[in-house]
Amino acid sequence: MEEAMAITGGKGYGFVFETAGQVPTMHMAFELAGNKSHVCFIGTPHVNLEFTPAMWENMNRKEFKLTGSWMSYSAPFPGKEWDLTAHYFATGQLKFDKGFIYKMVPMSQAQEAFRCLRHRDLYRESNACKRRLIREGTRALMCQSSVPNMILTVTLNAAIDKRYVVEGYQVGEVNRVKECAYTPGGKGLNVSKPASIAGAEVVATGFVGGHAGNYIEDALKPFGIKSEFYHLEEESRSCINIWDEVNHVQTEFLEPGFTVSEEEFKGFEKHFTELVKKADVVAMSGSVPKGLDGTAYQRLVRICKEAGKKVILDTSGKLLEMGIEAKPTMIKPNIDEIRMLTGKSCDNFQDMVDAAKQIHADGVEIVAVSLGGDGSFVVCDDGIFRARVPKIDAVNTVGCGDSMIAGFALGLSEGLSVEETLKKASAISAAAALREETGFFVKEDMEKIYPQVEMEKIG
User: When comparing pLDDT for 32 and 181, which is higher?
Assistant: First the structure.
């Protein structure tokens, strides 16, 4: 305690304490704060702790007469509090301000985002890193026991997704927006977010441009996703979704976005080649900007294959048809895409299995097919596996397919069997359907669903 006070008092340093419900730990923190040190408590949601925010306020103001800064917030991912805190301080989302601050971190922001950090100065207590030294309220200092696998996601046509909520949308009239939300959009980024939540190190690449592109990159930081986009001068596109609460009707406006020249794509290919070297798995998803043809993904898949990397391709139309000629490790076609690729009608389950087997025989190692509420199946070298998920009260199914891709990328990066990977991907996809935010799930939901996913080898 004396040593701690000597190095922190009045010098702009601070201590972060977990296990905030334990009285001895709290008293030590109070003494430090009384010595003009900066203090932050973190822990699981405070409703589960012995001390309520009101009690903390009382001790801060009256009993301990603290002179240092004081902050308390709860991280809704037990066991990952240090990781979250490191990221929040490094990105400026948590700062030491004078007086008592109680912050309940929204679940949607509580991502395991610390993996983007590389600075690791430590203040150690025995073998466990129970305290972290945070310098000047901005730099998080942390200990990480292992280096996660790196997943590289590709979003060639990234956008800012803007959602407007209105009451009684009228064409040709002034419509007042009741609520609005801006998020980084694109299928590849909807893979990035759940992969990061699940614990992977995620690097996102593709094309962005202008101020809108800068916003997309900044908006990914809270998720711990490292941006390695190729920058263009033109502005990245926006996609507007208008939800009419009265009529329950959705209207979308999709901007065309910039045009990518062959010279710019070649520049991206060089950039991409370097990124692939560091990746364990590459997941490329969605459409492509104007100026690129059906060979775009084909060329990128070949770069991955030449580097000996596993690559997932999730796209449609000519991009998929030409992309599979490069033999990606995995694809996840829907029924219409299977019909396009094989010419089969796929009117029943067995037809779908036979079509997937044909694609597999043509050189795609893993062919995964979603059956909606009936689960999914995979054709691979080890056989044919089917997964059935439990019945859930779905809140938002948009992006669940992207969350499933994230699960497959995780399984492949971790060296799981295809059967285990399918089970994990199914659980993540189902968990994502329980949340309103696209490309987001809560680990506790996934962990509850996972044991309930029924697996069957059918061939």
Answer: 181
Confidence of residue 90 (pLDDT cuts 50, 70, 90): low
Per-residue pLDDT averaged across 68-82, rounded? 47
271 contacts 172 by C-beta, under 8 angstroms: no
More confident residue, 424 or 85: 424
What b/e readout covers 13-50, taking b as 16+ CB neighbours within 10 angstroms? bbbbbbebeeeebbebbbbbbbbbbbbbbbbbebeebe
Whole-angstrom distance, CA of residue 172 vs CA of residue 36: 60
Give the separation between CA 394 and CA 90, rounded to whole angstroms. Answer: 35
Dihedral (CA of 82, 184, 181, 248) sign: negative
Statement: the pTM of the whole predicted model exceeds 0.85: no
Max CA pair span of the chain: 77
pLDDT at 149: 81
For residues 240 and 214, the answer to whether their CB atoms sit within 8 Å is no
Residue 132 CB neighbour total at 10 angstroms = 24
Could you tell me how many helices (H) and strands (E) the chain has, helices first?
A: 14, 21
Q: Mind giving me the DSSP string for 108-155?
A: GG----GGG------EEETTEEEEEEEETTTB-----SSPPPEEEEEE
Say which residues have a Cβ less than 8 Å from residue 198's Cβ, sequence separation at least 6: 406, 407, 410, 428, 443, 446
Closest CA to 439 of 215, 216, 192: 192
Give Cβ neighbours of residue 236 (< 8 Å, ≥ 6 apart).
158, 159, 160, 207, 208, 209, 210, 212, 213, 216, 257, 258
* Residue carrying the six token digits 């406006």: 253
DSSP 140-203: -----SSPPPEEEEEETT-EEEEEEEESS--TTS----SEEEEEEESHHHHHHHHHHHTT-EEE
Query: CA 179, CA 401: separation in Å to the nearest integer?
Result: 26
pLDDT at 150 over 50: yes
pLDDT at 198 over 80: yes
CB-side exposure of 5: number of CA atoms within 13 Å?
Answer: 11
Given pLDDT bands bounded at 50, 70 and 90, which one contains residue 49? very low
CA distance from start to end of the chain: 64
Using alpha carbons, select from 286, 294, 346, 334 the residue that is nearest to residue 312: 286
